[in-house]
Amino acid sequence: MIKKNFLTLLLILILVACGSKEEVIEIEKGVSLELANYRKEVLSIVNYKLEFRVPRDFNQRIQALEDLSFNLSDNTKDLQLDFKESLDHLKGIIVNGVSQDLAIENEHIVLKKENLKKGFNRVELNFFAGESSLNRKEDFLYTLFVPDRARTAFPVFDQPNLKATFELTLDLPEDWSAIANGPIYTATIKDGRKTYEFQKSDLISTYLFSFVAGEFESITRSVAGREMTMLHRETDEEKVKRNIDFIFYLHGASLQWLEQYTGIKYPFKKFDFALIPSFQYGGMEHVGAIQYRASSLFLDEDPSQSRLLGRASLIAHETAHMWFGNLVTMDWFNDVWTKEVFANFMAAKMVNPSFPTIDHELNFLVRHYPSAYGVDRTKGANPIRQYLPNLKEAGQMYGPIIYNKAPIMMRQLEKLVGEDKFQEGMREYLSAFSNRNATWPDLIDILDQKTTTDLKEWSEVWVNTPGRPDFSLSVKKEEQNVVAALYQNDPKSDRVWPQSLKMKLYNLQQQSIKESTINSGGEPFELKMDSNWEFFEALVNSDGMGYGLFPPAYQLVQSRWSALSDLEKGTLIVNLYENLIEPENYGKEGQYTPEQYVGLIKWMVVKEKNQLILNLVLGQLNTVYWNLLTPDQRNRISPDLERTLFHAMNDLTEDPAIKKTFFNAFRNVSISKVNLDRLYNIWKTGPGPIQGLRLSENDKTSLAGQLAIKMPDRAGEIIHEQLTRISNPDRKKRFEFLMPAMSSDVAERDTFFESLKDEKNRETESWVLAGLGFLHHPLRQESSLKYVMPSLELLQEIQITGDIFFPSRWLGQTLGRYNQEEVTEIIDDFLAANPNYSEQLAMKVRQSGDMALRSSQVLKKLSLLQNQ
């Protein structure tokens, strides 16, 4: 009996020991899903009391204090606190009154279990703030912590599902201003220093904690009963005056729309925003302290419709995040797309009242479809929802699929459920998860109750898999009838993409029209007509709702252009371009060549007046011209193309915004001596005889950069004179940074590229991206090809040190303008030599290299066809 009890006890001890071993959370870099799940289970009521002392001397470090408190339900294990900095930043740690040895292990401060207790815990930390995500300049700084970069600035439980409150104190130079998540509680000045104490913030995720401080102008307005403060650094008073009223109006209109749609009043204590020069993104939705790229809101004179709509959409997007993302937050960053899709989807609805004359269906089409297709057609296509084992890789979740494809998916979902039921579901979702975290399946569970369709099955295709379907149209005769059949095919699998779209048929004999609504699924859609419909033209996806590659109809441009609606023109143009860049299409009957397509664009820009369509086709023109034509072809067609664009700018419109749109296209494609001289004279002395063309300082700066590339013998003169013309100090610093990249001296450009290998020279990412654009301009690619492999080799470091969009934008500026097969070989060689390379980054490489691959294949196919 004793022996049996002893063996039983021994077995229990072994099992307990094994269980304990299994429950140990590995200390690994980043924030693993395992660690996040554990901390979510044991932590609650988290509060950060933070103080940052920012010295006036840029070379002195920022001293910081932190008083962290939390409730802990299990003190049997060590607790990891995230801090991605070197040990020399850490000066002291006291856990519940006990001093702890200073140590950082794999980006974590390990709070020892013997110093922790069940219930309330207090951790005091004395440290130097990490500055990689404080974006510190000599006279201002701003935090940017999405997705997991709060841990680079201060010790924190850096995961979205551990919402916390923040109490912030900033000790700043006397002439600095600041905003943060909470309202200002006190502001005192003493001994040349200003101290701001902010009220305790609302309950927010760590990536949303934020402050902006520096030499800013502050403007406060009351809009629809709500007080808002804007910080900015713009020195052009006319520009500020021209934009400011509408900026405040758009914020107020967005808030009112969202309160009405959601049935929830603005859920936070305050609403301010800051306009920051060279900000990494268009905007960032920090609670009560939104940050914007200044140039996205302060528009130059005569902005295009696209720019005006872009600003309104950006403001609507960031404001929508207050509900979708901030009030209800994704549980883990694999669902980061949910906050972005809601913001973009809602923004598309919200801008409508402020622009009553705009075709908003067309605007949705041109804003979302080309960008989504730009990823989904590639070998690196990713699903909307992705697996994320560690937050250190969360930045790679972002991209056109979540910003552009997801709103398309959501629009299909709304149509499937019905607008009223969809809104009802959104309200239930926001109410159920207010101040909490949610997943995509949580929303699907709510919406699934409002439709007979199996939304889980529907979501499996649209959300959890990448790519797009192909559509084909066949025609056959059956006795006295003509049958048009639309087939859906997925080139990558046997998936079916359930979706709603329309198809329009134009009878060539009777001049009559048929339009049919199609619910596309597994079976082909068949439209039966009488024998009079033997000859017709078809516009598939005539309502712009469908998603996929549709049959081209090049002939419709010239045969029916004036009869098409603006939306039909838009969907036609998008589809023509998608077919143009499919190498497999060349050799098929009716397929246009790139030269023929440029001719079609010339025809369209002379006829068309809609700004959104003009921007769409001129954007296509820039890609076709530089990617799908050989140098000989460009030289052959450029005189007439330049002549057409100049004529359109000078003679066909009096609208200054459209005139500037044509001017930018003319500037981008001009390579002939006569028109380069003309552009040089415009830059030197002004528009001259071009009536109604007004060029801002930014326009002149962009023109100078183009001329430096295209007129290398005058590059030095142009660059140095333009520097003297720039009045704004922030824009002057930017231009000084870019001067070596603009230079006609290859050695200077080589030195500039080498400098980018140093992290400190990549701090202002938008400047770096502009510099890469100059290095890799198509006219310089003979000398810039050598930068491609080193750029790929830098990518992992850029992903670690840069912000979320930097890796893909670095790749886009590096790879996106090439059409040589050699570039695709470099990409293949790089990935083959790195078989264990990050899957997420490898996808980004494939996505960014897709145009080089397609362009080289199209040019090769055309060459073969010409030689047959």
TrEMBL record:
Domain named Aminopeptidase N-like N-terminal: which ranges?
A: 135-208
Q: Which cofactor does it need?
A: Zn(2+)
Q: What Gene Ontology cellular component terms go with this record?
A: cytoplasm; extracellular space; membrane
Q: Which reaction does it catalyse?
A: Release of an N-terminal amino acid, Xaa-|-Yaa- from a peptide, amide or arylamide. Xaa is preferably Ala, but may be most amino acids including Pro (slow action). When a terminal hydrophobic residue is followed by a prolyl residue, the two may be released as an intact Xaa-Pro dipeptide
What EC identifiers does the entry list?
A: 3.4.11.2
Which Pfam family is one of those matched by this entry?
Peptidase_M1
Query: Which residue intervals define the domain Peptidase M1 membrane alanine aminopeptidase in the entry?
Result: 253-462
GO MF term list: alanyl aminopeptidase activity; metalloaminopeptidase activity; peptide binding; zinc ion binding
Q: Which InterPro entries match?
A: Aminopeptidase_N-like_N (IPR045357), Aminopeptidase_N-like_N_sf (IPR042097), Peptidase_M1 (IPR001930), Peptidase_M1_aminopeptidases (IPR050344), Peptidase_M1_dom (IPR014782), Peptidase_M4/M1_CTD_sf (IPR027268)
Q: Which domain of life is it from?
A: Bacteria
Q: What class of enzyme is it?
A: hydrolase
The reply on keyword Metal-binding is yes
Question: Does the record's keyword annotation contain Kinase?
Answer: no
Keywords, comma-separated and alphabetical: Aminopeptidase, Hydrolase, Metal-binding, Metalloprotease, Protease, Zinc
Cross-referenced Gene3D superfamilies, in alphabetical order? Neutral Protease Domain 2, tricorn interacting facor f3 domain
GO BP term (any one) = peptide catabolic process
UniProt family annotation: Belongs to the peptidase M1 family.
Q: What is this protein called?
A: Aminopeptidase N
Q: Which organism is it from?
A: Roseivirga misakiensis
Lineage, top ranks: Bacteria, Pseudomonadati, Bacteroidota, Cytophagia, Cytophagales
